[in-house]
């Protein structure tokens, strides 16, 4: 396994960006898949960046016996959307970054069935937002995701400049594809979905609400809950459950001789 830190110029954002990539050992990749390696795009939450999963979880150790590549980008505080202030983070992550990664690693799979996306909190929203509005990802996972903004009026009122800068007015948000409630009614594709949220998490009601809507809309959703709050202690554990859920050659360490 190799960990590569890459700096590239984003034509979309017109600035240099950083992305971390975990690349599987050749011995873990069967000859038949060496030009078709599966990829997981792993997204950070608010206050994080491309280093968050490396610093706060055991993701390197967890995938060292797998055939999976991991791509960890940053969207700053941009919520993985094209903001009203002109920073097109959605386009940079959903459209530009996969091409950038393929330029660096041409043997990573371009097939949707071997491309996956996951994230926590803001990144959980980003994973669903990107997967539902494209046909590039076959699986999307959210951990404590900000999957619905219902009941978030207090946060919006506390910092209206930030939220309006992201989404525009409430009316504009509700009618846009940034609103998952609207997007799931006419998605670009129907990826398999996974969601986890802790019972004591302030986003638990939002996850309950969106899970019911996704199931009613006919999505293949695996929804799991347990005691837990909005913190890395739980996400670092739950990412292993995501890896088990994905259709990859993943072997838990305790099973190894």
UniProtKB/TrEMBL annotation:
- Tell me where on the tree of life, at the top rank, the source sits: Bacteria
**A Pfam family that the UniProt record links to this protein:** Esterase
Q: Which SUPFAM superfamilies match?
A: alpha/beta-Hydrolases (SSF53474)
Cite the GO molecular-function annotations of the record: acyltransferase activity, transferring groups other than amino-acyl groups
The record's listing under InterPro entries reads: AB_hydrolase_fold (IPR029058), Esterase-like (IPR000801), Mycobacterial_A85_antigen (IPR050583)
Name the UniProt record assigns to this protein: Acetylesterase
Origin species, per record, is Lactococcus termiticola
